[in-house]
Amino acid sequence: MRRDGWFASRWHRLNRAPRITGVDLARGLAVIGMFAAHLLVISDDLDISDPGTWVAVVDGRSSILFATLAGVSIGLMTGGRTPLPPADMATARGRLAVRALLLWGIGGLLIATKVPVFVILPAYALLFLIALPLTALGARALLTLAAVLAVTMPFVQVWLDVLPLWTSPWGAHLSTAIGWHYPFTTWIAFVVAGLGVARADITRWPVQWYLVAVGMMLAALGYGADAATGASPAEQATSYLGAVWTARPHSTGLLEVVGSGGFALLVLGASLLLCRTALVWVVLPLRAVGAMPLTAYTLQLVVWALVALVSLDRVRDLSGFRALEPFWGFTVGTILFCSAWALLVGRGPLETAIDTASRLAVPDDAGLPAPPVR
């Protein structure tokens, strides 16, 4: 039996199957994009003709890419192209449920630091749980469902956002607990799309090209319609149709769901194709970040809280923290840390802890009831 040295085994883990290097790259881009959305002052409008506004591409789109990749991860963990057999699927679902609970707990701890960002992990955890019953479906059913959700839920979301519940004494606490800034009622479309993509077998190059083509088409449709007929900020705030017919970041409008969902598919497909070339070695540091996204995301917010405590009067001072110009320091530091950890230690520390906990909670012989055969 072949025995690799310590470094060689870590190298192989990062660069060989069953890891999909393009998925890691897309995750790394999503994490760094969220860093930029948090730490940079971003123009409200992205203007392709003005390079000074291009950084606005990260606003909203990075978190939607992150959610789409959550669906991809769920799909890969439950069998990839072919769903796991019933008994194995029951175990996988149990472990994913444990992961979701742990993610929700970590999200709550990060919120408690009072760092002035909308922490995505509570919403991420809910999306994991909602997606579990869908893991037995195939690619066609999942992608059809994602499309239906994408074009219908924005019309419902407008009404959900104005329910009296949110202005009740407990409304703000509930919103924080479930991550309503990323409402699961509509964002589940991104997760289902990612799950469907995983079932289509993203290791095949025709699927990767299809992702690029469909992603470009959807992005052009959503953003093009917004540029031509999209609601203004005033219309978005004062009318039902204005709230629906917009691609503004974090609006959950129809055009944002279509355009940014397409953008996520485009980035995923392009990342998978790029990693078929020699550039896979150039982007290795970004892939290292994508191999431990929870660690990178959490570390950013913890370090932010510590730096703000030392340097500012209060942690919630967003403009004061951004004035410190932390983006490049955080980004380079995260890339160096993740690269060193991946090559010298292996799996990310939080990823290891969550995987270990889920396996202890739901062992292979857990005896869970199998899901019905469909």
Explain how this protein is built.
This protein is an all-alpha fold and 374 residues long. Helix content is 68%, strand content 0%. The two termini are 40 Å apart. 43% of the residues are buried.
pLDDT averaged over residues: 92
Distance between the termini: 40 Å
Total number of helical segments? 18
Cα radius of gyration in angstroms: 20 Å
Coarse structural class = mainly alpha
State the total count of DSSP E strands. 0
Binned, the helix content reads: 55-70%
The number of distinct structural domains comes to: 1
Overall 3D shape: globular
Order of helices and strands: HHHHHHHHHHHHHHHHHH
Strand content: under 5%
Uncertain stretches: 367-374
Largest beta sheet, briefly?
A: none
What's a quick, concise take on this entry?
By secondary structure, the protein is mainly α.
Task: Supply the key terms.
mainly alpha, globular, 0% strand, 374 residues, 68% helix, 18 helices, single chain
Task: Compile the SSE list and pairings.
Blueprint: H1 6-15, H2 21-39, H3 61-77, H4 86-112, H5 121-131, H6 139-161, H7 171-178, H8 184-199, H9 205-229, H10 233-238, H11 240-244, H12 254-274, H13 279-282, H14 284-291, H15 293-311, H16 318-323, H17 327-344, H18 349-361
Helix pairs in contact: 2-3, 2-12, 2-14, 2-15, 3-5, 3-8, 3-12, 4-5, 4-18, 5-8, 6-8, 9-12, 14-17
